[in-house]
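Researcher: I'm preparing a figure for a lab meeting and need a structural model of a single chain. I don't have an experimental structure, so a prediction will have to do for now. The sequence is pasted below. Please return the structure as C-alpha cells so I can convert it later.
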Amino acid sequence: MKKWIIGLVVIIIVAIIAIMNYAPLKNKVMQQFFATKVYALLNDDEVMNLHQVITKDSSNSRTVMWQSLNDRDDFILEYGTDEEGDLTTVSPQKSVLNIDDKQIYIYSVYLNDLTPNTAYKYRVGYADSRTNWHDLKTADKDNNNFKVLIFPDSQSNDYTDWKNVAMNAWQQNPDSNFFINMGDLVDNGYDLSQWNAWFNSVEAMNTQIPVAPVQGNHEFYTTEWEVDLPIAYDKFFDLPSNGTDKYKNLYYSFDYGDVHFTVLNTQDDEIKEYEPNLLQDEIDWLRQDLASTTKKWKIVLMHRDVLNYSRNAAPLDSISFSRHGETFMPIFDEYNVDAVLTAHLHTYRRRVPIRDFAANDNGTLYILTGIAGNVRYPNLWHRNPLDAYVPPQPETDNYIVMDVNDDSITFNTYLPDNTQIDTVTLQK
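Model: Understood. Here is the structure written out cell by cell.
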C-alpha cells in the first residue's frame, strides 16, 4: 500500500478518536455510534460472497450463506420486516473448505417459518459490526404470477462479460423472484478466484433474490484440470434435500408458485469413480419426484443437452440424441414435462416440441439456453432439423426471462444489450 494512503488512514482514525473524546460527544450513545462505524470499516472483508439460495418452498423459507477467511463463532444473521422494529437473530451453521491452498469458512442460515408474500430485511455480522441491510421477499402461495431470470453457462477467463449480462438482465427485470444458472458457473471449479469473480458479478442481485444453480462439468475440474468431486460448489450452495446425504446437492427439486422445477445432474461420467450408481439412482428419484408433484407445470433443468449436433469435424447423417437425451426423454414424455432447459454447448437453440424422439405438437419444449460468459464457439454447431430457432451466427451472450401466469409460461430471450431475439409461450 502506498505511504500516502497509509498516512491518510491514520489521519482519519486519529481525527475520529479526537471527535469521540471531544466533550460534547462524550456520551455513550455517540461513542458507540462512532466505534461501530470504525469497526465495520476496518472489517469490510470479513463477510464475503453473501448470497441467497433457493429452498424447497420459497413461500416460507430461504437459505442465506456467506464466506470468511476467519473462523468465527460469533457470526449472526438478523432479520425482520422493519429495520427499526423487532429483529430475529439466528446463528449460522459453519463448515470448512480447504481448496486452492486456502482455508475458507462457510456460514449458512436456513430460515423457515417465514410468512408468505412478505418483504423482509436481513443483515449479517458479529460483535458491533454489521453488513448493510438487504431485501428478502417470500413467494405468494396464492398468486402464480412470477418472473425468473435464466442464465446459460457463465464460465469465463474474465468475468466482465458475465457481470454485464447478469446486471443488464437484473436492471431490466428488478421484479424477478429468483435466477437460475444452468451449470458451468465457473471455468474451473477448484479456482477460488473464479468463484469470487462469479459471486462479485452477481452480488447486487444475489443478495436480494435467491439463485437456483445447476451443476455443470466444469465444477468438477481441479486447478490441474483433473476431474474430482465438486467440493466448492457443494459447500457454496446448500440446496434442497433430495432425500439422501449420499447425493447431497447433486440433484434436487423445488416449487415456486404452481411450477415444479426438477434439477438433474448430467455429470455421472465425471463422478462414476466415486458414485458408480448415480445415474440409476437419479432415474429412480426422478420418477418419484415427477410422480409426486401436484403442481400444474413441470420444468426440468439439466446441464448437458439432449441432442447431438453435427459440426465440420464430426458430421452427422441424421438426427441423433445424446446419451442423456436417450435416458431422460422417455421419462419426460411419461410424466408430461412441459419444458426442459439445457446448456453446455454454448449456443442458443429453441426446438420444435418433441415427443417419442420426433417432432410432435403435443411434445415437450426443449430450449438449449445459450452462453452468458466469454467462452464462445462461433459457427461451430450446424443447424439441427429439430431446431425451430437459431440466432444469427456467430453468437454473442444471451439471457432468458421466464414469465409465469395462471395459464401460460413465456420464455423471452435477449442479447446483452436487451434486444429481444426469441419468444415462445406455453399455455395450459
